[in-house]
Amino acid sequence: MTAGGVEPDEDKPAPPARPTVRVGAPTERRNPLSVDLDLMSTRDVLTVINEADRRVPAAVAAVLDEIATTVDLAVDALRGGHRVHYFGAGTSGRLGVLDAAELAPTFNSPRHWFCAHLAGGPDAMWRAVEDAEDDDRGGAVEAAGCVRAGDLVVGLAASGRTPYVLGALATSRARGASTVLLCANPEAEAARSVDVFIGVDTGPEVVTGSTRMKAGTAQKLVLNTFSTAVMVRLGRVYSNLMIDMVATNAKLRGRMISILVEAAGCSEEVSRRALTEADGDLKTALVSLVSGAEVDAARAALARSADQVRGALALLAS
After folding, report:
1. d(CA 149, CA 141)
2. What CA–CA distance (Å, rounded) separates 205 from 220?
3. Which end of the chain is less packed: N or C, by CB atoms within 10 Å?
4. pLDDT at 15
5. Do residues 84 and 114 touch, judged by C-beta distance below 8 A?
6. CA count, 13 A, side-chain hemisphere, 14
7. Residues taking part in catalysis
8. What phi, psi does 4 have (nearest 5°)?
9. What's the gap between Cα 233 and its chain centre?
10. Measured between alpha carbons, how far is 75 from 84 in angstroms, rounded to an integer?
């Protein structure tokens, strides 16, 4: 009899053993600078974390060539009517969702341009979904349902071995998509299975294996750098001004006025009037003010130049 007074069910089969994997990625190694972390003062804990974080920008700088190649692949895909996909799990996948979600309000990019896929589905944004990242077939099935030839697929996996991500990448490549793996393991075996490998060397985490820390920070930096550069190359930035944003609140409506003042060197009153005449279209107002052309002419020039401000200004100048 058990301690609780209940006889064990000897006929009930034992649950199957769950698979176990020991990962050899650098992110799983112990950081010698933080072995006494639990004995440190609060200030010293923060110092150790901060000093470790300083390594991240330099690690990202070391892979800029690979990021540039990925940007060019994305630009070619989007110009050809294709899409960019992010596939990830856990922190990596959530960062992909965040990056994709921010592009439409920031650059007014079509929502279908960047598609984020998270192991475990939408619920995994808020809580861990058991064993979702180990489901290579799940990644493959999801990729088969949405990835097309000509798309760009970016796999996000801190360790470089997440089965869900690798399953999605293998299927995507077989379907004719270009593939990229972004991870924090420069030694990942999967590097040989993708078109572009971005292995950011962030080293061991302050808390061993906690890839929400340096590895996550590196992925956030890479994704910000990548998607912003894609939008710049696609003409959704003029100079360093955000000219394709969606003004969904008072702050952003004010920013539109500030952009026109900065770009055209005119007064706030003139900027407001130009924006009103352009029916709230920032690009049309900007081209009109910078070129001196009427709003209708500015709108026509934008239409003839695939909505590119530089191209429209060149047409009006000639």
Report:
1. 16
2. 16
3. C
4. 61
5. yes
6. 3
7. 102, 133
8. -85, 0
9. 16
10. 9
Taking the model in full, what pTM does it have?
0.87
Tokens 């709108």 belong to residue:
299
Could you tell me which of 149, 164, 82, 160 has the C-alpha nearest to residue 118? 164
Q: What is the mean pLDDT of residues 52-77?
A: 97
* Helix (DSSP H) and strand (DSSP E) numbers for the chain: 12, 7
- Under the banding of pLDDT at 50, 70 and 90, the label for residue 107 is very high
How many other CB atoms are there within 10 angstroms of residue 183's CB atom? 30
Residue whose token pair is 């590196």:
218
In whole angstroms, give the CA distance from residue 18 to residue 14: 12
HSE (side-chain half, CA atoms, 13 Å) at 159: 20
With tokens 């572009």, the residue in question is 196
Token reading at 42: 């609060």
Q: Are 99 and 227 in contact (CB under 8 A)?
A: yes
Query: Which segments within 93-213 are labelled E, that is strand?
Result: 114-118, 152-156, 178-183, 196-199
